[in-house]
Amino acid sequence: MDSGDPLKIILVAEEAAGVQALRALARSEHRIIAVMTAAVDEPGRPSAVKDVAAQLGYATWPARWVKDAAFAERMLEDEADLLLNVHSLYLINERVLAAPSVGSYNMHPGPLPRYAGLNVVSWALYYGETRHAVTVHRMAPTVDAGPIAYEAWFDLDDEDTALTVSAKCVRAGIPLIEKLLKTVAADLTAIPAIPQDPSQRRYFGKNVPDGGELLWSRPARRVVNFVRACDYLPFRSPWGHPRVRLEGRELAIVKAKPLDEAATAPAGTVGDPVGRAVKVAAADRWVLVHRLLCDGQPQDGAAQLRPGQRFEEPVSVAC
Amino acid sequence: MLMADRAQLADLRTAVAAVFADALKIEVPSHDTDLLATGLLDSLGFVDLLLELERRFGLRVAMETIEPDNFRSVANIAQFIAGQRKVA
Prior knowledge:
By secondary structure, chain A is of the alpha/beta class. Helices cover about 25% and strands about 30% of the residues of chain A. The chains are: A alpha/beta, B mainly alpha.
C-alpha cells in the first residue's frame, strides 16, 4: 500500500471495547475487510460486536480462525494491511500475525510490561494502583510482549471499580487506535515501536488472587481493593466476588468501602449496622459492607449479618 | 399511585428514553426492554449512563450502592430516579 491509501483492516474484537473500535473504524476512511468475533459461530450468544457489524453491513467471521495458519493465506489474498485486536483472547497464529502488510496491533487494557495477560484491570485495583494505562502495541508471538506504539495513562480513584476502570481504558484506548491509523496513513515508517523491558514483565494468567477468598486480617484498604477489583456490576465478573464463610455458610462480598474509623474488634467481627450496610472489622479499620451474595442472591449487608458474628479466616489461601 | 405521580413517571420514562437515544445512541425498543440481558447496555454504555443521569437529573449514584435491577429497563431507571428524588 502507499501512504494515503485507505487501509484494508481486519478487526478481531469483543465486548464494549470492540464495539467502540468498530464504530471508530466505521467513521474512518479505511475499509474493514471483516469483523471477527467469537459469537459468529455461536448462535444464540448475544454479541454487540456481531450485531453492530451486521447493522453496519460488514462481513463477520469467526474469531477462532486467527488460530489457524491457513487464515494467513486468506489475509494475503484479501491484501489485508492491518489486523487490529481489541479484547479478543484468542492466541493468534504467528503466520497470521505476520500476514498484514503493516502489521498486527493489540489494544491492551493495562500498562506494559508490568501488567501483561488477563484481567489486568482487576489486578491493578487489587494491588491498589492509583494510576493505570491502556496500551496499543504491535503483536508478537509472545502475548502482550510486542513493541509499544502508544500508551495513555489516567488516574484511578478510591471509588473506581473494575467496571469504571475498564471504561476508562476504552475511552483512552480508542483515540490511540485512531492515532495509529493516522500515522500509518501518513507515514508507515513513523509508527513508534518502543521495545518492552522483559525484566519488568509480569504476566497474569487465569488465577484469582487468594483463591478468591477474602482475608479480613488484611488492612481495610486491601480488603476493599479486592472487592472493587471484582466489581463489574451490573455485569458478570470474571473473578466472581470475594468469598467469605460465616457459621458454615459461604457468602460473597459485592460492595464495600473502608471507613476512617479504627476497628475496635478482632478482624472479621461484624459490627453495628449503618443504614442498610454493616461494619466488619479488618486488620486496622472498619469496612462498611453494603451488599453481599447469599446463596447467589444479592442482599443488604445489614439484612444478613448480625453484630458480634465473626467470619471464619480461611485455613489456607491458594495463590 | 396518584395521577400526578403517574404523570411524572411517564415524563421520566420519556426523558430516560431520550438519554438512550440522544446521548448513548442506543435505540431501545420499549420502556420494558431488558437492557442488560439483551446486551443493549454494555459496560461502557452503563458508565456513560451514570454520567448522563448525573448530568441531566442531578442524580449521583455511588458505585458502592448500585443495584442492577434499578438499571434493567427504561421503566426501572425512571422508577429509580423518582425514588431518589423523593429521598432527596
